[in-house]
């Protein structure tokens, strides 16, 4: 988005070199997912315009949707007051499923009567 | 919200005993803030219906808005697929400012031409 990278100095990475990144839908603002980025993932996200996270489990860069096709195109990047969390407005591409379980949003479970009740149905079969 | 606390076993607290918690506006789904909760903060949030976080800087429970009046009333709680992030739909009370800098949302800076540009104006003067 810019060759000037001074902006990255305002981002506070934690003791593991990570910052929390939230993706919201550009259309209606719905919270799609929450993950993490290291400095390289953040730079790559803005250079390529595709959401790129750091997978804490796989310990590697993770271009969202690279295998599933459910990529996320970056529309804009926003930093919070403390500088330790980023919000990205994105266009959720592919089948529109941000969640690896096939749901539009990863936050598809709602607490109801002491249990996490699944809301809605998957847009895609995650096993397909 | 419930005497049954089995639900909390599905929440994965990290190696510091924390889980990421995001508050979104019940009305339009706008992302208001991102903070953290330990187990006690999460339990207190659901018992009292007021968003209660763990302040990592002050190392203490933090009832959001306790001093400013900008409390957050819990409408519903949602867990993500990995169990390590929570989303809460809330009614932002008081002056409607979730951010301690007086803005509605903590994510009031947007990356524009390599700089974090402030979007909008504060709803309240944080120094008042």
In short:
The first copy, chain A, has 128 residues and is mainly β. Chain A has one helix spanning 39-48, and strands at residues 19-25, 31-37, 52-55, 60-63, 72-79, 85-92, 109-112, 115-118.
| End-to-end separation of chain A | 35 Å
Q: Which pair of chains has the greatest number of interface residues, and how are they split between the two chains?
A: A-B, 42 and 42 residues
Helix proportion range of chain A:
under 10%
Instruction: Give me the number of helical elements of chain A.
Output: 1
Uncertain spans of chain A, ≥5 residues at pLDDT below 50?
none
Strand-residue fraction of chain A?
35-45%
Mean pLDDT of chain A: 94
Number of E-type strands of chain A: 8
For the biggest β-sheet of chain A, the strand order reads 2-1-6-5
**What is the overall silhouette of chain A?**
globular
Which structural class do you get from the secondary structure elements of chain A? mainly beta
The biggest beta sheet of chain A reads:
4 strands, mixed
Radius of gyration of chain A: 15 Å
Return the string of H and E elements of chain A.
EEHEEEEEE
Oligomer: homodimer
